[in-house]
Amino acid sequence: MSRWELREAALSRKMLIETRSHNRKTKDEVQIALQSRGSALEARQTPSVFDFDFPRIEFEFQEGWLEDMSSTAVGSENVDRQVVNRTATGNDVAHETSSGDTASADGSVEKKASGGPTDKRKALKRRREEESKFNLMNLLPLLFVGFAFLALKVPASRQKQKFNWNDTQYVYAFGDSYTFVQGTAGYPNFSFIGDALKLSFTPTALLSNQIVPKNIEFLTGCFEGRPSDCSPHQLWDFAFADADIDPKILPLHHDFSVDLVDQVKQWATYAADVIPHPPEKTLTAWWIGISDTGDSFDNTTIADWTTFWHSELRSYFNAVEFAYGRGLRGTYLFINVPPGQRKPARKDDPNGQELLRKRVVEFNTILSGYIQGIAARHRNLNVLSFDAYTWFNEVLDNPGQYGFTNTTGFCQCSDPTFFWYDEGHITQRAHELLADAIQAQLLAASS
Q1: What is the DSSP track for 227-250?
Q2: Nearest alpha-carbon partner for 219 in 182, 165, 290
Q3: What distance in Å separates the CA atoms of residue 256 and residue 145, rounded to the nearest whole number?
Q4: pLDDT-based confidence at 272, cuts 50/70/90?
Q5: Which domain of life does this protein belong to (predicted)?
Q6: Residue 404 region, left (φ>0) first, then alpha (ψ -120 to 50), else beta?
């Protein structure tokens, strides 16, 4: 084999070994992650404490891999030169004599046509010179043909899923109080189904659970009753009011709270095999971080905020990756954090307003990088984002254009002129307008 062929063979072998190793590792991680699911859906009736973590997504560039491959190729070439051809019995061996002639097992000697080792070295040198003339130019015709084939035949797993909001049948949601809907089987004023003290539910309980009207229904039109009866969009909402991202980073608000990472685990364990989620008809909304920024903005024990937000967002997107690996694909909609500094709760605290504004901007800036990252990793996903921070500021800066006359106080009433319902949440009218803005963006992104 030529040196070119040997190097290519070595590269292929190493890539095959690494791929098999990765596949084995991924399979093991998923198996471990799903062990608590049980063997039968209806058997899920006892409270479950999730004792597994998402597989961490690490992105490392291993420097020196090219040099390692070169040494591997050279080593393979040396081994190939030392291979001795044997007969079926393993006893008859052909070998070179000290003069450079070839001696067979019966003792006869075949003379070389030329005069010994010196001529052999010259012949080897000439062969290498001829091989060195083979360069990339010889491959150009093949490369053009290959690229043309790839352009015509892209694997289905890498093709971007077409998105059309009007054809979207299943809407999934994960997040906090701005996202959750009340369910008859949920914790009152906190969730659609279950809580941290009772995470498990049966398929029957899930499918018979009914929505109590609240907020995100304005986007889906799934205002009440069983989600499966809604048309054209079914709303399956696993968000939990006051949720943070990860209880290992920030403490739970209540002992019954379900943070985002556990919302995803709850869906994966008890709902993923019950509710359909075909990619071409599924949209998943991710809206989290409002509580995280509000809970931590004045925490004096956090020395490096960039590092802190990265730890939060790594946990966030490990949960997103886990949902993707569990089959929740199609279109993802990420919504960033609105300007919490403009809530009535901060009205008389100018220093707190500025500090919270800074933390929210930091969070949103880093979040945008993670959104771009998942779009680059999964080309088959439609990845959309809605800028809630800008939308809130636009409405609060121009309230009259949207029918609001009070944007600093709040009213727990049905008065449509108030923007704020309480110290930290918006009114029904504000939710309607927000849903209209999100829907306009979804329609613009539809094909």
Answers
A1: GGG-SS-EEEE--BTT--S-TTTS
A2: 165
A3: 60
A4: very high
A5: Eukaryota
A6: beta
Distance CA 361, CA 339 (A): 8
SS3 266: helix
φ/ψ region of 330 (left if φ > 0, alpha if ψ in -120 to 50, else beta) reads left
DSSP 3-state of 426: strand
Q: How far apart are CA 101 and CA 115, in angstroms?
A: 10
Q: Tokens representing 74?
A: 């050279």
Tokens standing for residue 180: 């959750």
pLDDT, residue 161, reads: 75
Model confidence over 338-396: pLDDT tens digits? 999 999 999 999 999 999 999 999 999 999 999 999 999 999 999 999 999 999 999 99
CA distances in angstroms from 370 to 314, 355, 395, listed in the order given:
8, 23, 27
* Neighbour tally for 144: CB within 10 Å: 10
Lookup result for tokens 């990756």: 321
Q: What is the DSSP string of 170-227?
A: EEEEEESTTT--EETEEPTTTBSEEBTTB----HHHHHH--EEP-STHHHH---SB-G
Question: In whole angstroms, what is the distance from residue 285 CA to residue 335 CA?
Answer: 8
Amino acid found at 303 = A
Shortest CA distance to 221 belongs to which of 209, 208, 231, 207? 231
Side-chain-side CA neighbours of residue 294 (13 Å): 23
Length of the chain in terms of residues written: 447
First-to-last CA distance in the chain? 52
For strand 282-287 and strand 331-335, is the pairing parallel, antiparallel, or unpaired? parallel
> In Å, how far are 91, 359, 442 from 242, measured between CA atoms?
79, 18, 26
What would the two tokens of residue 267 be? Answer: 């869906």
Amino acid present at 216: I
Residue range 192-213, pLDDT digits in tens: 999 999 999 999 999 999 998 7
Rg (CA), the chain: 31
At 297-345, the pLDDT tens digits run 999 999 999 999 999 999 999 999 999 999 999 999 999 999 999 999 9
What is the reported pTM?
Answer: 0.69
Cα–Cα dist 260/289, whole Å: 10
At a CB cut-off of 8 Å and minimum separation 6, what does 9 contact? 1, 73, 76
